[in-house]
Structures are given as structure tokens and as C-alpha cells.
């Protein structure tokens, strides 16, 4: 599956952005989908993930209450709504699909995700 992220950009602290991840090649509906980010000089880290059905989601503590992950399986697309953005949210954001089919376990482990997009850059100014 090919994943293409979009929606990144420059925003002031306190602002909002909505990232999209469009999949092609095959359906992502059986897979848990995740968002990860990588800030300059830092390792890639988990942000949020959503189960294949959309019924379960999991967030990193740093974004809980500010970010919301959602999916539209009919459109083969995953979203990340980011509100109350902070300068420390500045990073390249990546979408990923896990390797398991129809799992009710929502992973936050990078190694469980086998397909990755190229990333979209988010810059939050203070």
C-alpha cells in the first residue's frame, strides 16, 4: 500500500492543522493506522493510532486531549486533527499501516507498522 500525507504547514502556537493520509494500491480497512512524528535531531515517536474498525484509538500523553485521529475506510484515508498546537509539536509527521489484519490491539510500536508515507512537515511558531 502507498501512503501519502498532506496538510502540513506553518502555524502559530495555539492554532490547528488537519493532516490527511491517503492510501492507494490496496485498502487499508483491515489495518490499524498510526501517526508518528520525527523532530530534528530526535528519534521517530508515536503520536496516535486507530483500530481497523475505528472503535479504538490510542494517543501519546504529549498529544492527548489536543489531537484526534480518525479514519474513513470508504475513502481509504486517515486523518489527524491537531488543535492547540505547541512549538514542541514541530516535526515531520508520518502515516503508517500496521502489518496485522483485523486486530483489536492498537499498537504504538514503530516495528509493528510495515508501510510508511513520505511525511508532511509541521512547523509551529511561538
Describe, in plain words, how this protein is organized in 3D:
- Strands 2, 4, 5, 6, 9, 10 and 11 form a seven-stranded mixed β-sheet that branches. The chain has a four-stranded antiparallel β-sheet with strand order 1-3-8-7, with no helix packed on it.
- It starts with a strand and ends with a strand.
- 0% of the residues lie in helices and 49% in strands.
- The mean pLDDT is 96.
- 36% of the residues are buried.
- It has 126 residues and is mostly beta strands.
Features:
mainly beta; globular; about 130 residues; single chain; 7-stranded mixed β-sheet
Q: Overall mean pLDDT score?
A: 96
Helix-strand string: EEEEEEEEEEE
In percent, how helical is the residue content? under 10%
Strand percentage: over 45%
N-to-C terminal Cα separation, in Å? Answer: 37 Å
Q: Report Rg.
A: 13 Å
Shape: globular
Report the major sheet: 7 strands, mixed
Tally of extended strands?
A: 11
- Number of helices in the DSSP assignment: 0
Runs in which pLDDT lies below 50 for 5 or more consecutive residues are: none
Task: Quickly give the structural class.
Answer: mainly beta
Amino acid at each position: 500500500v502507498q501512503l501519502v500525507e498532506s496538510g502540513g504547514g506553518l502555524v502559530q502556537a495555539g492554532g490547528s492543522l488537519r493532516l490527511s493520509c491517503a492510501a492507494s494500491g490496496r485498502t487499508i480497512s483491515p489495518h490499524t493506522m498510526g501517526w508518528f512524528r520525527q523532530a530534528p535531531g530526535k528519534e521517530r515517536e508515536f503520536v496516535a493510532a486507530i483500530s481497523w474498525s475505528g472503535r479504538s484509538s490510542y494517543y501519546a500523553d504529549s498529544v492527548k486531549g489536543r489531537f484526534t485521529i480518525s479514519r474513513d475506510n470508504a475513502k481509504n484515508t486517515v486523518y489527524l486533527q491537531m488543535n492547540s498546537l505547541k512549538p514542541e509539536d514541530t516535526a515531520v509527521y508520518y502515516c503508517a499501516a500496521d502489518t496485522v489484519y483485523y486486530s483489536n490491539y492498537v499498537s504504538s510500536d514503530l516495528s509493528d507498522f510495515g508501510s510508511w508515507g513520505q511525511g508532511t512537515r509541521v512547523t509551529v511558531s511561538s
